[in-house]
Amino acid sequence: MIVVTGATGQLGRLVIKHLISKVDASNIIAAVRTPEKAGDLSALAVQVREADYSRPETLKTAFAGAEKIILISSSELGQRAEQHMNVIEAAKSEGVSLIAYTSLLHADTSPLGLAAEHIETEKYLKESGVPFVLLRNGWYTENYLASVASSIEHGAFIGSAGKGKISSAAREDYAQAAAVVLTSEEPQAGKVHELAGDQSYTLTDLAALISRESSKEIPYVNLPEHEFKGALVGAGLPEPFAALLANSDTGASKGGLFDEQGELSSLIGRSTTNLSEMIKAVLA
Ligand SMILES: NC(=O)c1ccc[n+]([C@@H]2O[C@H](COP(=O)([O-])OP(=O)(O)OC[C@H]3O[C@@H](n4cnc5c(N)ncnc54)[C@H](OP(=O)(O)O)[C@@H]3O)[C@@H](O)[C@H]2O)c1
What we know:
Layout: E1 2-5, H1 10-20, E2 28-32, H2 39-42, E3 47-50, H3 56-63, E4 68-71, H4 80-93, E5 98-104, H5 115-128, E6 132-137, H6 141-145, H7 148-154, E7 157-159, H8 171-183, E8 192-195, H9 203-214, E9 220-222, H10 225-234, H11 239-253, H12 263-268, H13 275-283
Parallel strand pairs: 1-2, 1-4, 2-3, 4-5, 5-6, 6-8, 7-9
The protein binds NADP nicotinamide-adenine-dinucleotide phosphate.
């Protein structure tokens, strides 16, 4: 039995999709905070169980009979370390043979503020004694694609990443890698997978691609972190999320989202999803 937590999220759904292509759906448990959102997952014949990271009593029941668990990091910033500890404790008490955790690229040396909760979780995993594998996911390309429409509307792509190169990949790529790791014949306990896209680009490169695909001149405008954050708040993003994105861009300017080891494409046995194709899809 393989449990996927956060299974109603965007990454979780894709992990389930890829797992179903490898193992029988009846051996997959979709562990979800909100079962009402999981009707489509039930329709795939996977078992849906309630699992709220903040309610430990739901976790033990959700993990009963599990052999492996993929802990998809929570989206509730600031609460994540404690929530992940709850998951690890429940997994331990159910005697699982492997926890795969979706951490952050180069979490141990990352300049991104986001890394702190991942480092804490990785430390807790080590101390727990439960066998674990780290899926240190790089940036989702989708994070930047969310700004394509507004960049065209405003005539500029803004950010704080300077000349930092970003090796992002699609959620689809990371999800497939997770399914490969969870079903691998090769022992995974103790492994650290640094996962990033095959193409590395600066935001200037990204703006040039948007310009080419949209046939409009969209320059990249680099802003100090506080100005970028202010622009995101002005565009309607909640302050903590705007702060996170702006801080992550500054981290990218220091090389925090760059990696050219090619481990992701090697795991999934294909190139990571092409950036231009993703931009085209957004514009379409
Ligand atoms: N590498 C990157 O670029 C990047 C970018 C964004 C996020 N992330 C991380 O990757 C994770 C997955 O990404 P995503 O795109 O799939 O995010 P997402 O679509 O926002 O999904 C997050 C999932 O976490 C679940 N969740 C939140 N709080 C929970 C709780 N207390 N108990 C149980 N489940 C809870 C949500 O449940 P509901 O469906 O009930 O809301 C949802 O299913 C994120 O949560 C975040 O940690 C990484």
